[in-house]
Amino acid sequence: MSGLAKTTVLVEEGGNQTRKRSFTHASNEQIKKDLNTKKIKTEEMSANEKKSNFSVLNPNSNGTLKMSSTSSMSKPGATTKKLVIKNFKSKPNLPENYQETTWSKLKEAVIAIQTSKAIAYSLEELYQAVENMCKHKMASQLYVNLTNLVEAHVKSNIEQFLSEGMDRQVFLKRIDDCWRAHCRQMIMIRSIFLYLDRTYVLQNPSIHSIWDMGLDLFRHHIALNTLIQTRTVDGLLLLIERERGGDAVDISLLKSLLRMLSDLQIYQDAFEHKFLLATERLYAAEGQRLMRELAVPQYLAHVEKRLREENERLLHYLDPCTKWQLIHTIERQLLSEHLAGILSKGLEALMDGPRSQDLTTLYSLFSRVKDGLNELCNHFNAYIKKKGRTIVIEPERDKTMVAELLEFKEQLDNVVTACFQRNDRFLYSIREAFEHFINQRQNKPAELIAKFVDLKLRAGNKEATEEELERLLDKIMVLFRFIHGKDVFEAFYKKDLAKRLLVGKSASVDAEKSMLSKLKQECGGGFTCKLEGMFKDMELSKDINITYKQHLAATQESGGLELSVYILTMGFWPTYPPVEVRLPAELTRHQDHFAKFYLAKHSGRKLQWQATLGHCVLRAHFAQGNKELQVSLFQALVLLLFNDGDNLSFEDIKTATNIEEGELRRTLQSLACGKARVVTKTPKGRDVQDRDQFAFNADFTNKLFRIKINQIQMKETSEEQKATEERVFQDRQYQIDAAIVRVMKMRKSLCHNLLISELYNQLKFPVKPADLKKRIESLIDRDYMERDKENPNQYNYVA
């Protein structure tokens, strides 16, 4: 039997409504199947008859043909009956005008969707109609009809946007409403024509999907209309400009319309370029105006605020693809164009504060733009050099120079750490700038740093604990590294260290040795060997004094006077000019006795006594009672004269002691004009004159038993400073000579320029070419080297 086998099954839906669906069974051969002992027999169907049967579509039947079949239940004991299902005797055909009738119904539904009216048919019925048309090869015409219908509707919407006098806000609202309605309609239409979209459209890659077809038609007829597009983009730009100006605008409208442009794929061509040009014009004018009106901190805060606002716009309504160009435009117009202006106008004020928060903002903003950090670093370097030079060059600031430099360096370090993210470029810039300005004034910074260290290491300094002193020494070493003339520092440091060691004014031996180890680590053992020798002399002297006291105790020759002697190696210690003074016989006898004792142990050595470095403790008898006076040797020599007479003239004292006149005047001032006046002067006054008379003050009173009478220190005169500098200069001559001989001995023959270059590499202190030339001439005169006979610019080593 050929044909289609068809059964109908009753399905209950809703209330009492019964809907029938048809299921088609087809097979190429007869299939036997056991269904509760009942057999359903199906005969083979021919392939050309294998087609679905469709009922006539009418509103009442919802596209199905109602059929019913009943079967009576078998009674117990009755015989079993067989149910045989047979094919239709004739092939089912489509109703006449099926395509036109079905499309008419679909068209009516689409127009109802487009006009926002109720659809007369159920969506299931419409979907089934589309499916049926597709299965009967009507899909192509169906797609064309649907496209024409949607296109006609889109065209009908154009007219409302072409009126001239429409307000921009109203226009944008209409466009947005039209777009939203179009999207809703296309979603609804696509749900009905989904079978068409998933079969015919997928099988034909050259045609758009129903959704893309709707977008394409809206884009072509509305969005790409020159007048509509211009008005839309201009309206959007106006809204964004108003929002940037602080006005309240409809953000949802902006977001919807910009999303529309993105969905229609005309965002970049139609909107983005104009938007970026408008942004550039706005911020170019704003940057120029605000640079004139605002101070730098306020300007930086404004730039930061603008960047934050634009990032929020990107989050709220702008397309993400605009981000890089938008932010780059703002950075260029508000920052890149004004880098030098911002730094020239405000960096110095920010650094002088220092205004850490503003500097952090400055660094953060400048790091966003090309060459921003380079420009910042250059101005930062120039600021350091300018301010540092004022500290170093001005002589009136010498007393506070080192303290100011330490404070300045600490301030810069804090700025780089807290504000500039400890950027290595800025750390190097600090070092380079300090090394530049601190050597603008030759030798003086090295001298003042040495004196500052002396001040901090003296016993009288109670400003800091040991930990604080150690940190301070570390900071001083940082300044020390920047100095070119380290030999100048050594000369002054050695002189001050000698005073601290000999007079016992050192605050801490540990601190002294810590400073020495820092210098050794920085400059090497050659730099500190003499300083270490000074400490070694002090330790050996203690041992010698112990041995000498044991010797005196053994020989019973103490004589009531206790003598302590420091034996100083002449090469380690500063050079002191020999001073000849008249000592009391008792003191001379003890000196000679010690010399005899020492030379007996160390033959071949020579002792030279330095009276300027000696100090004594005297017992004095006053009306109030006995006191002990801690004085220098010169003060002691003057006071001992009053054992032989109560009144002495200036000339008498000078003749008896043979002390140099200037030193004697300062000594008498300390005794007669200081806080502890154990001697009276006639006439009274601060200065000591040649005709002044001096008398022992028996009525002197003081609550202390041991009284220290400070020597009036002569301020270091320019001559004394020049003498120290001259010694440094002389040492440098020897170093230059040694370097020239070393180079020439190794090279044998060398031209002038190469020799000068080699010397600059070897010498660690600043030197001028003229000084090098003088030393070369000196060595030629002394036959260490000679000029080449054929080439005067060539030198030959003389063995």
TrEMBL record:
SMART domains, A to Z: CULLIN, Cullin_Nedd8
Pfam families: Cullin (PF00888), Cullin_AB (PF26557), Cullin_Nedd8 (PF10557)
InterPro entries given in the database record: Cullin, Cullin-like_AB, Cullin_CS, Cullin_homology, Cullin_homology_sf, Cullin_N, Cullin_neddylation_domain, Cullin_repeat-like_dom_sf
Chain positions covered by the region annotation Disordered: 1-32, 45-76
Record's compositionally biased regions (Low complexity): 64-75
Keywords: Ubl conjugation
Xref: Gene3D superfamilies: Cullin Repeats, Cullin, Chain C, Domain 2, Winged helix-like DNA-binding domain superfamily/Winged helix DNA-binding domain
Domain annotation Cullin family profile: ranges: 444-672
PANTHER family: CULLIN
Name by which UniProt lists this protein: Cullin-4A
Protein source organism: Bicyclus anynana
